[in-house]
Amino acid sequence: MQHHTKNKGDLGVLKAQVDLYQKGFMVMLPLTEHAPFDLVIYKDGSFKRVQVKFRNMNHRGNLEVRFRSSYYKSTGAISKPVDKEEVDIYCIYCPQTDECYYLDPKNLKESVTLRLTPAKNNQSKLVKMASDFRDLPLGY
């Protein structure tokens, strides 16, 4: 199924809302598209800002997530690092698994690769299996 970039983002946000609601969170939407996050969640007296990304599995069975923000201006494409102080949780929605995966961006460098399928060479050291990221990071 082909999706326009904006439609992909909208689908990811909708899937994240359902998943977070099922995990017991109250889900709130900012009234602007210019916030550095897509959702705010609330549970047990704590608010957290969530950035949602739609990512397709690549040919190697991975989800690749770069902590960069990209947008277009009249002068062309702009790409800059995400300010990790403005986002508490990254939610990655993958249409091939129809699952959401949750990351704490402050614990990661400029990018992360989550593996959806076992490596062909059976490597497991330093491999981040996506299935290990179905729950929100500790403390959330």
Question: How would you explain this protein's 3D organization?
Answer:
InterPro entries: PD(D/E)XK_Endonuc, tRNA_endonuc-like_dom_sf. The protein is mainly beta and 140 residues long. The protein has one domain (5-133): Trna Endonuclease, Chain: A, domain 1. 13% of the residues lie in helices and 36% in strands. It is built from one helix and nine strands; from the N terminus they run H-E-E-E-E-E-E-E-E-E. The chain has a five-stranded mixed beta sheet with strand order 1-2-3-7-8. Strands 4-9 form a two-stranded antiparallel sheet. The longest helix is centred in the N-terminal third of the chain and has 18 residues, at 5-22. The N and C termini lie far apart (33 Å).
Please outline the helices and strands:
Elements: H1 5-22, E1 26-28, E2 39-43, E3 46-54, E4 62-66, E5 68-73, E6 76-81, E7 89-94, E8 99-103, E9 111-115
Parallel strand pairs: 3-7
Antiparallel strand pairs: 1-2, 2-3, 4-9, 5-6, 7-8
Summarize the structure.
Helices cover 13% and strands 36% of the residues. It has one helix and nine strands; from the N terminus they run αβββββββββ. It comes from Cytobacillus gottheilii.
